[in-house]
Write a structure and sequence with these properties.
Blueprint: H1 2-20, H2 23-39, H3 45-66, H4 73-94
Helix pairs in contact: 2-3, 2-4, 3-4
Amino acid sequence: MKKNAVLIVIILFAALHTNAQNFKAEQKKQEKIIKSARKSKKVTDLEYEKLMKEQETIKYTIEKYEMDGALDAHEKNVIHDKLERAERRLRRYKTNGEVY
């Protein structure tokens, strides 16, 4: 039973790991969330502009690193860190308690 449970955990981890490497989809998802946050007035226009500029930087980085056809570990880490930082910044902007 333990071997089956371990095998299931390994398979799930592998599936999550392969899905986590789809950087373009993650970036598009973030961009969509930013646009909906602006539409619902959860972020100011200035915050929106900062977030969108950051998304453009992320897009450029992904394209630059994919030019050679393969991403090495460092490039994946850089992209992942940029996406994580953008997600944290969006979360902070959405909950900063300002009244608009």
